[in-house]
Amino acid sequence: MQNNNTYAKPVYIVDGSRTPFIKTRSGPGPFRASDLAVAASRPLLARQPFLPEALNEVILGCVSSGPDESNIARIAALRLGCGDLVPAWTVQRNCASGMQALDNAAQNIANGRSHLVLAGGTEAMSHHPVLLNNRMVTWLAHWNRARSITDKGRQLAALRPHHFQLIIAILRGLTDPVVGLSMGQTAEKLAWRFNISRQTMDRFAVASHQRLDLASREGRLDEIEPIFDSKGKLYERDDGVRPDSSVEKLAGLKPVFDRPIGKVTAGNSAQVSDGAAMLLLASEEAVTEHQLPILGRLLDTQWSALDPSQMGLGPVHAMAQLLQRNGGDGSDIDYWEINEAFATQVLACLEAWKDSDYMQSELGIDTPFAPIPEERLNVDGGGISLGHPVGASGARIVLHLLKTLQQNSAKRGITSLCIGGGQGGAMLLEAGS
User: Fold this and answer.
1) Is residue 212 part of a domain?
2) Catalytic: which of 62, 82, 349, 418?
3) 93, 428, 332, 14: CA torsion to nearest 10
4) Structural domains counted in the chain
5) Domain check: are 388 and 327 in the same one?
6) For 117-143, what is each residue's pLDDT tens digit?
7) I want to staple 236 with a disulfide (CB 3.0 to 4.6 A). Which of 102, 116, 226, 294 is the partner?
8) What are the pLDDT digits (tens) for 43-78?
9) In this structure, how many other beta carbons lie within 10 angstroms of the beta carbon of residue 363?
10) Domain presence at residue 151
11) Active site residue 349
12) In CATH, what number is assigned to the domain containing residue 422?
């Protein structure tokens, strides 16, 4: 494989850490998004031979930080002791926000603007807000203008049940406003397009849980940093994993997005969760100056776009264009990570990847790439079993793929994920020597 990448200079990934991914259950979770970013970053920086003030910048992906976390990257940087002089900024590309932060860091390192960058993603989905509807907002504006008791009485008399209809921000945010489909509905479209059965989807979901459980028991998730909440409760592993999951149990779940005939259920979809993943990126000069170890090298990144109603196929487009530029057919890729937004979404990507008609009509590629071996894809589970905190997942899959390459003495890997709104992102990575 050639390396016709987009980075003019080498970009190294020195190290990385993440928090456990904590499943959203009832109400806001114990950590805000900034808490999670700090929890993932603090032990990572503590391991380095330089002080946090030596960083050139901090870049953080986050889809929806809280009202007290404006420019959440700056808040995290200050809490981490980076000092007043280290700039920090936040990026948002829906599910790929964490990956976008890594790409921005790599670009700045490649063009010489930065040498040491802390980058990654965070999301506390359990803290996404509940909003008032526009009718209630208008009513409140009129209420604030009312001065006399009579005017206030008229306003109170005007209140109706529809004023109290709340907007669940996370549900609204997971709906594409252009095509009017939720992300789950786009997954249903892919299930029917590629004739993926409910049983096949459930089987994929069960395998995700089994793989994560095995990786946890065998100690292969050493990127996780244990964290304590304010009540002293310890979180040391991804808590959404269900080792006892089975196809028979999942078969009893009802469709969520296309009732009653749909195939996508809560059991074969990514979990709603809270978590953060952070990585330290460095230039060749910084590696030499500080004698830093090299976990891996970021070789290339590709962003692609497609019909928003087919957004789950974004990885196919991004990975194909990435391989085309680098002269590979996929056979020399050792491990793959495709974020598990939905089981059917990953399965549809695998089908499209080897479908000559799809490749020709959608991408203008005459010959499909080498099939992606299932035993080399998401080897330790994915979003279905460990969760998908949307701002963090793009960084998590990069970190975990590098760990997988290291643990298996492998050389190259590709990470990818679909992006709400009809996009795909992919990164080509190489293990450290």
Assistant:
1) yes
2) 418
3) -130
4) 2
5) yes
6) 999 999 999 988 888 889 989 989 988
7) 226
8) 999 999 999 999 999 999 999 988 889 999 999 999
9) 17
10) yes
11) no
12) 3.40.47.10
